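**Reference record**
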Amino acid sequence: MPKMIEVRSDDQCCASILRAPMDGVDAEKLALGFSALADPVRLRILSILADSPAGEVCVCDFVLPLEKSQPTISHHLKILSDSGLVHGERRSKWVWYSLDRTRLAQLRGALDA
């Protein structure tokens, strides 16, 4: 069963989009995160990361389950990283990625009424 991300009020970066008009800065922050989620490969990457018992996955371990080349996976991970949804840590020649659960909770919280 997938691990649920709990949303607490202190995790929110922006007001709910369903409660009040938002300013341009909040809209930009949210749009960056939501646009990163708008791709099936990136959603699968997040799913693999969320399911990892260690909480992190080496970039090399995405190739087989996603059936994509390593450069393609790196492209998608860069988009996720630039949006703040994942973090990478270089170890020797490989980069290990983990979810930013706070950022995911912020996006989720922005949709709560």
